[in-house]
Amino acid sequence: MRLYCRLLCILAAALTLLPGLSAQSATPPLAGIAHVSLRVRDLATSRAFYESLGFEQAFDLNHDGVPYEAFIKINDHQFLELYPATPKDSASGFLHLSFEADDLQAVHDDYLAHGLKPTDLHKTPAGNLLFTLLGPLQPISTNGKAIPQTIEYTQYLPDSLHTNDAGQHLGPHSGADRIADRLLGVALAMVDPATAKGFYLNDLSFKPLPGQQNVMHLPGNSGEQIEIVSAALGTHARITLQTNNLGRATRHLNHEHIQLQKLEDAVVFEDPDGNQIVLEQH
After folding, report:
1. Alpha-helix runs per DSSP H in 132-210
2. Cα separation of 73 and 167, whole Å?
3. Can you point out the beta strands (E) in 85-161?
4. What CATH homologous superfamily does 32-281 map to?
């Protein structure tokens, strides 16, 4: 009887530890999608196109006054990064996706603990923390061969270019002239969608959207998502922007003479490089 009571006490003590153990093993959340990176044929043309949608360039990085990366602002935490094509890297289209974390070191350490191989944390020219991770094969390369996806993770630091631009370059009239104010989702073209889906679910702890098994939410409460699609999308990006007034945004696009396709609850159009933009109201 005494042994039985002791065993019950041990079991009860173990059960009280389970919530703590579960919390310790939980994957650190991601704050959201930080940016989508695109290579464009002509930087001035692409910048003018996105400005016609109401988005402003927050800043750029340059060598001797020649920009090699332009940051188009969607909101204080989300950007489109535009890289001009070069003779060495001439193919336009999707380059990489970046996720934001409030505690980048925790995400990095969690990945290491689960057998992944993130690069070391380092500071970027824009002044933020960054590490990268290689993901599943994507049909994007300059020599016709598939290459592993480059996934970026960033944490905005005080006095970085991004942080110092907070509240600026968001358009006039509190965003009334901008077609959207949030980057909601990104489609990722993969050579083997099933393998890619398993990587995001099992290795990165993304959560499938009920009824849409190839659409997954980021870990955490951002509500932002990725979609795994076939290699048929090719080198083009497909991004989903969120608007609070689809009718007004559609009128804006028509006023700018941008050819679009109307769906039941969205509109779809392309940028000058053939990347698809889906505009949804939420």
Report:
1. 161-164, 193-198
2. 11
3. 93-100, 122-123, 129-138, 147-155
4. 2,3-Dihydroxybiphenyl 1,2-Dioxygenase, domain 1 (3.10.180.10)
Residue 61 and residue 126 in contact, taking contact as beta carbons nearer than 8 Å: yes
**pLDDT confidence band for 187 (50 / 70 / 90):** very high
Which two three-digit tokens encode residue 33?
A: 């999608």
pTM value?
0.88
Q: For the segment 236-268, what is each residue's pLDDT rounded down to a tens digit? A: 999 999 999 999 999 999 999 999 999 989 999
DSSP class of residue 233 equals G
Closest CA to 32 of 241, 223, 238, 228: 223
Contact yes or no for 163/111 (Cβ under 8 A): no
Predicted confidence at residue 2, as pLDDT, reads 43
**Whose structure tokens read 């099992």?**
202
Sign of CA dihedral 78, 234, 125, 122: positive
211: left (phi over 0), alpha (psi -120 to 50) or beta: left
Please list, residue by residue across 130-143, b when 16 or more beta carbons sit within 10 angstroms of its beta carbon and e when fewer do. Answer: bbbbebbbbbbeee
Q: Helix (H, G, I), strand (E, B), or coil: what is residue 105?
A: helix
Give the Cα separation of 187 and 97 in Å (integer): 10
